[in-house]
């Protein structure tokens, strides 16, 4: 590990810094990166909590901007050393059009790369996704795989398609000369399903359970494993990568890393119950209450309703053919590449990640606790 002098000289830019993951990255950078002089938080929607961060020793600069606007990205990036590009349109529910998803996730990423070249920003960390690999449209399981496991990555949905294209752009940009003549060093992190404080689907499931008298109904077989990783550990991996890219450019440049920790392998629903059970919810049924073909039919019906209602209202239920296929396909990761390449060890144990997430659910508005 390099020995870093504690002189705050570096300027970091975090795109999407007000999102679920972005907020954890921003807060952790302020706690864990002693070399930070200025932290720029770039987001389409700025959050009010940013104000409280401005009182600390590091200069926190909030920048309202859009990654699809090249000039806004370049202006925000000018003079920064490192960019963590986590902004993205995360939509598998049909809220945004495929064109918009492509524009934000692919064109937005191209704009970030171009801005690095234009402004001489040398280090780019990109938040990719497990969905760049899978689950694929054929429903093939990916069981305890790593970055080198062969898998037929075939996508049809706009979100994984956009993440795969954007990741490719980032990796291909590694080595390009930036303004000043130095090479750009890029790296992509692929989180599995992130959980933790601020997670929208856990929030939705909690309120849904409360509406059903404290009950949720099993829809997915307990045997289907879905990879999950705690948001604090995903943030920590971003910070370590950003810190180590300079010293280990030859090893880490152009590489991909799955984000992992010690979270247990479980089905999507059973995993969420780790937090929802201690908050008074029960998952009804040892097996799915409805047969798979009926769930498929309901998911297809939801997709049809979404299409029919679109001129009038945006109907975006959790269940659609894509989310059903995702939740029903085993996709788990087992790797130590991040540890080998840059010394990553999870900052939060499973027990701590669980406790923090439970505490967050318990303090939610309308919570019975
Ligand atoms: N949530 C997960 O389980 C998960 C898993 C793997 C990868 N990811 C990736 O992690 C990143 C962050 O995801 P998240 O779950 O925190 O999502 P999020 O929606 O909470 O955060 C995304 C942030 O990006 C911002 N943003 C969106 N469009 C923008 C634009 N045009 N210009 C500037 N900012 C814009 C949003 O305002 C938001 O603050 C995404 O790139 C996503 O693909 C998420
Ligand atoms: C049968 C249904 C009722 C259950 C619905 C669960 C569904 C909403 C969940 C299951 C899997 C989830 C995705 C998975 O954790 C990984 C990712 C990758 C990431 O890049 C963005 C989020 C996403 C797509 C999760 C979204 C919610 C999903 C589909």
UniProtKB/TrEMBL annotation:
The chain crosses the membrane at residues 290-309. Its EC number is 1.1.1.181. It is found in: Endoplasmic reticulum membrane. GO terms for biological process: B cell chemotaxis; steroid biosynthetic process. It comes from Mus caroli. This is 3 beta-hydroxysteroid dehydrogenase type 7. It catalyses: (24S)-7alpha-dihydroxycholesterol + NAD(+) = (24S)-7alpha,24-dihydroxycholest-4-en-3-one + NADH + H(+); 7alpha-hydroxycholesterol + NAD(+) = 7alpha-hydroxycholest-4-en-3-one + NADH + H(+); 7alpha,25-dihydroxycholesterol + NAD(+) = 7alpha,25-dihydroxy-4-cholesten-3-one + NADH + H(+); (25R)-cholest-5-en-3beta,7alpha,26-triol + NAD(+) = (25R)-7alpha,26-dihydroxycholest-4-en-3-one + NADH + H(+). Pathway: Lipid metabolism; steroid biosynthesis; Steroid biosynthesis. GO terms for molecular function: cholest-5-ene-3-beta,7-alpha-diol 3-beta-dehydrogenase activity. The keyword NAD applies. Pfam families: 3Beta_HSD. The gene is Hsd3b7. The 3-beta-HSD enzymatic system plays a crucial role in the biosynthesis of all classes of hormonal steroids. HSD VII is active against four 7-alpha-hydroxylated sterols. Does not metabolize several different C(19/21) steroids as substrates. Involved in bile acid synthesis. Plays a key role in cell positioning and movement in lymphoid tissues by mediating degradation of 7-alpha,25-dihydroxycholesterol (7-alpha,25-OHC): 7-alpha,25-OHC acts as a ligand for the G protein-coupled receptor GPR183/EBI2, a chemotactic receptor for a number of lymphoid cells. It comes from the Eukaryota. Residues 13-283 form the 3-beta hydroxysteroid dehydrogenase/isomerase domain. The keyword Transcription does not apply. One of its GO terms (cellular component) is lipid droplet. InterPro entries: 3Beta_OHSteriod_DH/Estase, NAD(P)-bd_dom_sf, NAD(P)_dehydrat-like. It is a multi-pass membrane protein. Keywords: Endoplasmic reticulum, Lipid metabolism, Membrane, NAD, Oxidoreductase, Steroidogenesis, Transmembrane, Transmembrane helix. Belongs to the 3-beta-HSD family.
């Amino acid at each position: 590990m390099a020995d870093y002098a504690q002189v705050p000289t570096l300027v970091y830019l975090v795109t999407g810094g007000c999102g679920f993951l972005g907020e954890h990255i921003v807060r952790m950078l302020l706690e864990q990166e002693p070399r930070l002089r200025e932290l720029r938080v770039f987001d389409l929607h700025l959050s009010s909590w940013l104000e409280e961060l401005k009182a600390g020793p590091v200069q926190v600069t909030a920048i309202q901007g859009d990654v699809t606007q090249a000039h806004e990205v370049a202006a925000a990036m000018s003079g920064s050393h490192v960019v963590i590009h986590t902004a993205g349109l995360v939509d598998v529910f049909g809220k945004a059009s495929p064109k918009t998803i492509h524009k934000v996730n692919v064109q937005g990423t191209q704009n970030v790369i171009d801005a690095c070249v234009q402004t001489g920003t040398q280090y780019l960390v990109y938040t990719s996704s497990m969905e760049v690999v899978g689950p694929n449209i054929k429903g093939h399981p990916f069981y305890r795989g790593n970055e080198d496991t062969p898998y037929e990555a075939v996508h049809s949905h706009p979100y994984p398609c956009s993440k795969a294209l954007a990741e490719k752009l980032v990796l291909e940009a590694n080595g390009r000369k930036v303004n000043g003549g130095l090479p750009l060093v890029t790296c992509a992190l692929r989180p599995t399903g992130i959980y933790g404080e601020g997670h929208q689907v856990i929030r939705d499931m909690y309120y849904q359970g409360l509406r059903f008298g404290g009950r949720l109904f099993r829809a997915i077989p307990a045997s289907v494993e879905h990879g999950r990783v705690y948001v604090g550990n995903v943030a920590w991996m971003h910070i370590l990568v950003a810190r180590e890219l300079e010293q280990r450019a030859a090893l880490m440049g152009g590489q991909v890393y799955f984000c992992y920790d010690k979270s247990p392998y479980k089905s999507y629903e059973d995993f969420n119950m780790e937090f929802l059970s201690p908050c008074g919810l029960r998952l009804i049924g040892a097996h799915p209450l409805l047969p798979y073909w009926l769930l498929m039919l309901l998911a297809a019906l939801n997709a049809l309703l979404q299409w029919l209602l679109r001129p009038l209202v945006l109907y975006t239920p959790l269940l659609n053919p894509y989310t059903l296929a995702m939740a029903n396909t085993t996709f788990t990761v087992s790797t130590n590449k991040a540890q080998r390449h840059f010394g990553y060890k999870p900052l939060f144990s499973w027990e701590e990640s669980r406790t923090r997430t439970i505490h967050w659910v318990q303090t939610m508005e309308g919570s019975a606790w």
